[in-house]
Write a structure and sequence with these properties.
Elements (H helix, E strand, L loop, with lengths): L4 H15 L49 H5 L10 H4 L9 H36 L8 E4 L19 H4 L3 E4 L19 H8 L27
Antiparallel strand pairs: 1-2
Length: 228
Amino acid sequence: MQGYVTDIITDMCLDWLEERDPEKPFCLLYQHKAPHRPWYPDEKHASMFLNEDVPEPDTLLDDYANRAKAAEAAAMRVGVHMDETDMKCEIPDDMSEGDLRRWAYQRYIKDYLRVVQSLDDNMKRVLDTLHEHGLEENTLVVYTSDQGFFLGDHGWYDKRFMYEESLKMPLIMRYPKEIAPGSVNDDIVLNIDFPALFLDLAGFTVPAEMQGSTPPDWRQGICTIATG
């Protein structure tokens, strides 16, 4: 199929919405790939940020002192472990690592933000379609993702480490019948909690043994155990 992948995915989803049986409930999974490497923006957004610099994260030049050896060994440093496809140009070979990270960060983060702006624009198309069909009041819209990305934090792109910047995930929901606009829940939520939530909002009885049913002592933290 010819075109920009974010637009194509959105077009297919909108076609499906238009052709669905309006007498039946529906579930639409609208998922994107574009924010992943190598971050190709579309023509419409290619000129964003051309005449400005994006502020660097405080830890862009992290030297990994006092961190686990795996942090220093991780092959996902901005600039250092990127290639010409990522940078869309030749990579200078006469820079110190610090200067290379700074130079590459500006090219990387701007492409990333351009890609994400396209996602935002296309998500608006979906929300507008729900509105046009009178579905916005009775449709649960859930915005979430997989693990967060290191946007130059600790000198990294990608994920792979359970540092604070990469551990959190967005979870934003719109359902006017049940969720007041602007309301915030501070509970620690994991994606294994989603099924019980969706069943509850859909009016089904949630099995007591299912993960995500609200206990009297909601979790205050998470613990990860690695073996092997």
